[in-house]
Write a structure and sequence with these properties.
By secondary structure, the chain is α/β, with parallel strands linked by helices. It folds into two domains: about 15-45 and about 285-390, Alpha-Beta Complex (Aspartate Aminotransferase, domain 1); about 50-285, Aspartate Aminotransferase, domain 2 (3-Layer(aba) Sandwich). It contains 14 helices and 15 strands. Strands 2-10-9-8-7-3-4 form a seven-stranded mixed sheet, sandwiched between helices. Strands 11-12-15-14 form a four-stranded antiparallel sheet, covered by helices on one side. The longest helix has 25 residues, at about 285-310. The protein starts with 16 loop residues before the first helix and ends with a helix.
Length: about 400
């Protein structure tokens, strides 16, 4: 089947957080939404049909998670990433964000430290603070737009008795980096050495651009698998985040049992009746959608990069290896973060995510979602260009 990713779909008045909650979330209801990680493409027809079929039953009572959920998760990881797992390693959750909270509650005490690598997905930051734990920021290094890990600093932080967890974003959101096998080995060895459990968020692992390949950290060595949980979901891949279903791989039975017990205490894993049918359809019938989507995203990011280089050279973009979230370096504009927000959101009327949401290292940056039809991306860029020229940049 051929998918039309150029189609403009009206999303206003659909209870869309991205489109109907813009004023509350980014401060200006007139801004074109380019912020949250939610694409403006139809999800695969097979997913739509699975939801319709379940809806036609007309009884929406309490569901349960069937064995097929665990089997299709294992099959997908083997097919897409070459990782053979056992189905009983998989834990159902209603999303990856709840895992961050649950792992903190199950494996740390108040005052313990959780290592993160800013700038990083903000939902890795908030749960640490919300649960009374301490952020240990192993800030990423950046040289000429290329991000890397400060391994010396990572080891120093992991060696502290208070360090209990590392939240790893792989591929990385917001910088779009795909960590190499060598990077992952060094991370895993440091964490093993000091008994720090890795929580690896791999939700963007299917959205690899320009021939890059994702390596699940836990697939490299059984020792790494035993010291980690790996988080996967079809939500970003197939644009079905609102259906709330994720598969968490926890090979270590002790870690898995603690995770499951904490979920039970929190009463936090009650899925909706449409989640699992959609999940199964996505992971078994939609490979063609993913292939076409990645090709479209590659063209979008190439267009975005060329537009900036030719018309707004003071706004820089690094090498985009994965995701549909562009990390724009706006430091050359010499604007404060407050002025940067005004420039994009209030003047250009483009609703970006401000870099400071991803930690202090995000100062001077914004994140822009290019998972949209080309016309939407062009509209956003031209609106920014008008203000860019008016500011005399």
């Amino acid at each position: 089947m051929i998918y039309d990713f150029d189609e403009i779909i009206e999303r206003k008045n659909t209870q869309s957080s991205k489109w109907d909650n813009v004023a509350a979330r980014i401060g200006n209801g007139d801004a074109l939404p380019m912020w949250v990680a939610d694409m403006d493409f139809r999800c695969p027809i097979q997913v739509v049909e699975a939801v319709k079929k379940r809806a036609e039953h007309e009884i929406y009572g309490y569901p349960y998670v069937p064995p097929e959920f665990y089997d299709v998760t294992a099959s997908w990881l083997k097919k897409r990433h070459g990782w053979e797992i056992r189905s009983d390693w998989v834990v159902f959750t209603t999303g990856i964000v709840p895992v961050f909270n649950t792992m903190i509650q199950a494996f740390t005490e108040e005052g313990d430290e959780v290592i993160i690598q800013e700038p990083v997905y903000h939902q890795m930051i908030h749960p640490v603070n919300d649960n009374g734990r301490v952020i240990s920021n192993n800030a990423l290094l950046c040289e000429n737009g290329v991000y890397s890990i400060d391994f010396e600093d990572l080891e120093r932080r992991a060696s502290r008795a208070e360090a209990k967890l590392l939240f790893l974003c792989s591929p990385h959101n917001p910088v779009g980096k795909v960590w190499s096998r060598q990077d992952l080995v060094r991370i895993a060895e440091i964490c093993l050495k000091y008994g720090v459990i890795i929580v690896s968020d791999e939700i963007h692992s299917d959205l690899l651009l320009f021939g890059n390949r994702h390596v699940p950290l836990a697939s490299i060595d059984e020792r790494y698998a035993w010291n980690s949980v790996s988080c996967f979901a079809p939500s970003k891949t197939f644009n079905i985040a609102g259906l709330r279903a994720s598969g968490i791989v926890a090979p270590n039975p002790e870690i898995r049992k603690k995770l499951e017990n904490q979920f039970k205490k929190n009463k936090g894993i009650q899925q909706n009746v449409f989640a699992v049918p959609a999940y199964i359809a996505a992971y078994t019938e939609c490979d063609d959608y993913l292939e076409q989507l990645v090709a479209y995203l590659e063209k979008n990011i190439a267009f975005l990069a060329a537009f900036l280089e030719e018309r707004m050279p003071k706004i820089k973009i690094g090498k985009q290896e994965a995701t549909y979230l562009a990390w724009l370096n706006c430091k050359a504009l010499n604007l404060s973060d407050e002025a940067l927000a005004e420039f994009f959101i209030d003047k250009s009327l483009v609703g970006v995510s401000l870099g400071t949401a991803f930690g202090d290292e995000g100062s001077g940056y914004v994140r822009l979602n290019f998972g949209c039809p080309r016309r939407t991306l062009e509209k956003a860029l031209h609106q920014i260009l008008i203000q860019y020229k008016s500011f005399g940049f």
